[in-house]
UniProtKB/TrEMBL annotation, chain A:
<feature type="compositionally biased region" description="Acidic residues">
    <location>
        <begin position="329"/>
        <end position="347"/>
    </location>
</feature>
<keyword id="KW-0969">Cilium</keyword>
<feature type="region of interest" description="Disordered">
    <location>
        <begin position="480"/>
        <end position="535"/>
    </location>
</feature>
<dbReference type="InterPro" id="IPR006802">
    <property type="entry name" value="Radial_spoke"/>
</dbReference>
<keyword id="KW-0206">Cytoskeleton</keyword>
<dbReference type="GO" id="GO:0035082">
    <property type="term" value="P:axoneme assembly"/>
</dbReference>
<feature type="region of interest" description="Disordered">
    <location>
        <begin position="329"/>
        <end position="350"/>
    </location>
</feature>
<protein>
    <submittedName>
        <fullName>RSH4A protein</fullName>
    </submittedName>
</protein>
<dbReference type="GO" id="GO:0060294">
    <property type="term" value="P:cilium movement involved in cell motility"/>
</dbReference>
From TrEMBL, chain B:
<keyword id="KW-0969">Cilium</keyword>
<dbReference type="Pfam" id="PF04712">
    <property type="entry name" value="Radial_spoke"/>
</dbReference>
<dbReference type="GO" id="GO:0035082">
    <property type="term" value="P:axoneme assembly"/>
</dbReference>
<comment type="similarity">
    <text>Belongs to the flagellar radial spoke RSP9 family.</text>
</comment>
<dbReference type="InterPro" id="IPR006802">
    <property type="entry name" value="Radial_spoke"/>
</dbReference>
<keyword id="KW-0970">Cilium biogenesis/degradation</keyword>
<dbReference type="InterPro" id="IPR055316">
    <property type="entry name" value="RSP9"/>
</dbReference>
<keyword id="KW-0966">Cell projection</keyword>
<keyword id="KW-0206">Cytoskeleton</keyword>
Length: 535, 275
């Protein structure tokens, strides 16, 4: 008996509790399965070199056992590398991998087109004009960056170039980077633009002609129909007309694109019905302009209209400027527009930044607020009805005496001070801060809106700007309560002729029958009596 | 996100318009390493910023050797002086869910339940506790809720060692572009809830060292994450729609990832109506 070797039974490894593998997997079946799994994993072929670890290890161990070098464990990595090199392998696969064109490269290609400078002719024309409508996006971005607001410098520069493209393509008078609205699949970059006069009128005429064409077609169809079902007496309330391009909520034209480098799309003007509906719903933007907006009350339009309506609401609620920067023109004309116009005040002296932060009366709105009707200037819907009556001259229509007299809606006038903005519960409408407390000489006054989270404004001396970065929704402290569907409509007016009553029960019917028979019996008796008398 | 990658990372999450001013960035670059030294953290993450009505809270998180262990959270007003926050208790979290409205910006502000939610106030009174809650407690609980609900990491970024502790995976090379577009490739970096409910077939495919967390696939409601590829796929940005303001970024095929929160600290309970 000498020292037992591990492979001899006397070593004790075959005893149930002394095997070196005991603590791992006691059950032989699962151990076999584990071994199979491990071996299968080792036999997996590598996709780059076509070898597998099992074979490679077998080759390495074979080489070591054949050559038996000294200090094998120190040079094992080199041995492995040598085995790999020594193995001459011909690439058996005749198929070659196609170089994968990632979408990253395509996007980079598109963005690159932004950087292409136009040919020299246009460049000369620009110099003659002098003032270009292109805004200095980088300067605005710098000021907002002092407050920690804004996109990365790269993205700001791409937007700058994209706006330059827009200005050169469309006839634009003034242009401004309005902001960015985030969406589920893609985001929107929005530019606020005023087109040169004369350009917008052409578009209005085009739509009118199209409208007339449609009417003629409809009339022909109506004459063909015969035996029409009875017309309903329901008259929908008159549609409130949208404001003219260039005034009120449609003062500016908006162009959007998903990413700088993609083409700019013009948003259609907004109608009051869309604004009224947009106030009642709260939906995320998907990023596709033609996506439908599925909601209740049903939104009259698709995502482009919803986007335009939200932009109008945000502009009306949060576009501000230092008080006194804009003033009303000196001529006092009583137009229906009523103070729609404002001009820059050449004698404006900017108050110091500390004052702009402390008191909100140093700021004023310069966009007209939107009334409940959905317009900035109130239109009496009764007057609209009367106009319709004169044009159509159809059957007599009831006068609108039954309609409640609608009071004229007024909103706060243009250039109201911010201190008159109502807060929500106990939260003020605006939060004002200076960009830095450490260097007050060069700080910038920043205002954040609490009603429209994402709307910011800054002012520093004579420069000021508004911007929006966000999801495009108003802040509501209460949860969103969607409008409930209206109660079920009555099918018919219930009058004495046709009221719904319960079906008569069996007793009632029998009693009725008995009464009828009694009546008939009485009549027979009377007739017999009369006959008897006649006789 | 990691304190060391903060400058590069802020440029990648700036798509939402929120970021930090140069002053704050510079201050963070100094104070976060000092935090690491003072508290002996192994990793420091800049968690983000909660906007109050009158001020903003900047939050940082520090990790010990086990990344899954409880994190220490600190807050600051100027990104220079940090104060430690106590760990969140279940009671704090339950009470916070009853509160609505913005943060005020003052940690000693007291929310009075009697005004906000009278029923809850009565309940608390009956149990002998005061129906008030300090804003500091609300802050702690809100950060805990956000981390639990929407704090995410890519699959494979963390490994669970056989001893049970969680560490960064040094062999993580980033998700491929195809994987990065799928919600399945991202995990909630918190205690898993759904893992044990998976079928045996699914569990067989899981790798216990990397698949030990819940993935985003089965988040309720469906569609509560917005996945966008910016610059044609150079960066993958995930934005949470449940807690508006949480942005996660990852550059595919690289080790860069992180999430940050810039927002008002309110849950978006209107989410089902908005989708």
């Amino acid at each position: 008996h000498g020292p037992y070797q591990p492979h001899e039974p006397g070593y004790g490894l075959d005893q149930p509790e002394y095997s070196p593998y005991e603590d791992d997997i006691p059950d032989p079946k699962t151990r076999m399965l584990a071994i199979h799994n491990a071996k299968a994993y080792l036999l997996k072929t590598s996709t780059t070199s076509g070898q597998n670890l099992y074979d490679h290890l077998a080759n390495v161990l074979t080489k070591i056992l054949d050559e038996q070098p000294t200090n094998t464990v120190d040079i094992i990595e080199n041995i492995s590398k040598d085995v790999k090199c020594a193995r001459f392998q011909k690439k058996m696969d005749t198929l070659r991998d196609e170089y994968e064109i990632l979408p990253t490269f395509e996007a980079a290609e598109k963005c690159k087109t932004l950087f292409i400078k136009e040919n020299e002719e246009n460049a000369v024309i620009e110099e003659e004009i002098g003032q270009t409508p292109l805004p200095n996006v980088m300067q605005t971005a710098f000021y907002f960056e002092q407050a920690g607001i804004g996109l990365s410098k790269d993205e700001s520069y791409y937007i700058f170039l994209a706006l330059k493209n827009l200005v050169s393509v469309q006839p634009i008078q003034t242009c401004r980077f309005w902001g960015k609205i985030l969406g589920l699949e893609r985001n929107y970059i929005i530019a606020e633009v005023q087109l040169r006069e004369g350009e917008e009128e052409e578009e209005a005429e085009v739509t009118e002609e199209e409208g007339k064409g449609m009417d003629e077609v409809e009339e022909d169809e109506e004459k063909v129909k015969e035996d029409e079902p009875p017309k309903s007496t329901y008259k929908p309330p008159p549609e409130i007309p949208k404001e003219e391009n260039g005034t009120g909520a449609n003062k500016y034209v908006y162009f959007v694109c998903n990413e700088p480098g993609k083409p700019w799309v013009k948003l259609p003007p907004v109608t009051p019905a869309q604004i009224v509906c947009a106030r009642k719903i709260k939906k995320f933007f998907t990023g596709r302009l033609e996506a439908p907006v599925v909601s209740f009350p049903p939104f009259p339009g698709n995502e482009a209209n919803y986007l335009r309506a939200q932009i109008a609401r945000i502009s009306a609620g949060t576009h501000i400027s230092p008080t006194g920067f804009y003033q009303f023109p000196e001529e006092e004309e009583e137009e229906e527009g009523g103070g729609d116009a404002y001009e820059e005040n050449p004698e404006f002296e900017p108050p110091p930044v500390a004052e702009m932060v402390e008191s909100l009366s140093t700021w004023a709105h310069h966009v007209k607020s939107i009334l409940k009707q959905g317009r900035c200037v109130w239109i009496n819907p009764q007057k609209l009805e009367e106009k319709d009556e004169e044009e159509e001259d159809e059957e007599e229509e009831e006068k609108s005496e039954e309609m409640d007299e609608q009071q004229e809606e007024t909103g706060p006038p243009l250039l109201t001070l911010l201190s008159e903005d109502e807060g929500i519960k106990d939260i003020p409408a605006w939060t004002a801060q200076a960009s830095t407390n450490l260097i007050p000489e060069h700080s910038v006054a920043i205002l954040q809106s609490n009603r429209w989270p994402g709307a910011y404004a800054f002012a520093s001396g004579r420069t000021f700007e508004n911007i929006y970065f966000g999801w495009g929704h108003k802040y509501g402290p209460e949860n969103h309560n969607p409008t409930l569907p209206p109660p079920v409509q009555a099918e018919y007016p219930s009058g004495p002729g046709n009221t719904e009553t319960r079906d008569p029960t069996l007793e009632e019917e029998l009693a009725f029958k008995a009464a009828k028979e009694a009546l008939a019996a009485e009549e027979e008796e009377e007739e017999e009596e009369e006959e008897a008398e006649d006789d | 996100m990691e304190a060391q990658c903060l400058p590069a990372a802020l440029a990648l999450v700036a798509g939402g318009g929120a970021g930090l001013s140069p002053e704050k960035r510079a201050a963070l670059g100094l104070s976060l390493p000092l935090l690491q030294r003072d508290y002996r953290f192994e990793r420091v993450w800049f968690w983000g910023c909660i906007q109050g009505v009158r001020g903003a809270y900047y939050i940082a998180e520090g990790f010990g050797p086990d990344r899954a262990a409880h994190r220490r959270r600190l807050y600051s007003f100027n990104c220079l002086d940090w104060s430690l926050l106590t760990p969140a208790t279940r009671e704090m979290v339950a009470r916070t869910e009853l509160l609505t409205g913005r943060f005020q910006g003052d940690p000693s502000f007291e929310y009075n339940f009697a005004e906000i939610n009278p029923e809850a106030a009565e309940l608390l009174f009956d149990r002998g506790k005061e129906p008030v809650m300090k804003e500091e407690a609300r802050l702690i609980a809100t950060i805990e809720l956000i981390d639990r609900a929407v704090g995410i990491v890519p699959r494979g970024a963390f490994v669970k060692t056989p001893l049970g502790s969680v560490r960064e995976n040094r062999h993580f090379e980033g998700l491929s572009l195809v994987e990065a577009k799928k919600l399945r490739s991202y995990f909630h970096f918190t205690e898993p809830v759904n893992l044990k409910n998976k079928t045996l077939l699914e569990k067989a495919d899981l790798d216990p060292s990397t698949d030990f967390l819940d993935s985003l696939e089965h988040d309720i409601p469906q569609g509560s994450w917005s996945v966008q590829l910016e610059k044609g796929g150079a960066v993958v940005v995930l934005r949470s729609l449940l807690w508006l303001g949480l942005t996660f970024y990852h550059v595919p095929m690289t080790k860069q990832y992180g999430y940050i929160y810039f927002g008002t600290g309110e849950k978006n309970l209107d989410l089902p109506f908005m989708l």
